[in-house]
Amino acid sequence: MNEVLFGKRAILTRTRPEDAPHLVMWWADPAYQNPPRKVPFGEGERYYQEWIQSGRLVHYILRDPAGQPVGALWYDPETRRIQTLAPKHQAALVQDGLTAFKRALEQDGREVVE
Predict the structure, then answer these.
(1) What b/e readout covers 26-57, taking b as 16+ CB neighbours within 10 angstroms?
(2) May I ask the CATH architecture of the domain 4-107?
(3) DSSP summary character for residue 34
(4) In the sheet that 69-76 helps form, which strands lie side by side, from edge to edge?
(5) Residue 74 Rama label (left phi>0; alpha psi -120 to 50; beta)
(6) Looking at the predicted structure, is the pLDDT value of residue 36 above 60?
(7) What is the per-residue pLDDT across 93-110, written as a single tens digit (0 to 9) for each?
């Protein structure tokens, strides 16, 4: 899959190890979760570095039209589902990103379960 995917407004960039601090912050922020999840204190960044580098998940950072990171989307090949980590007030951007991500996954020959 491409390193960068484009929706109508959303930009998706393949997650890199340097994105881990964003993920740690978002994962701990109740605005991004329903219900909130807890990251083990002091373990978050190490956990995400391993998660991103493992390659098991197809993982992208969701960016707004200006290129600012606002959330994450990932595909788990075991469950064939897309998961999101983004604030509710970005729902339209998330939906645009989901559409672009799903299209790219299907073009790559991956099945996506709704």
Answers:
(1) bbeeeebeeeeeebeeeebeeebbebbeeeee
(2) 3-Layer(aba) Sandwich (3.40)
(3) S
(4) 4-6, 11-14, 58-63, 69-76, 81-85
(5) beta
(6) no
(7) 999 999 999 999 999 999
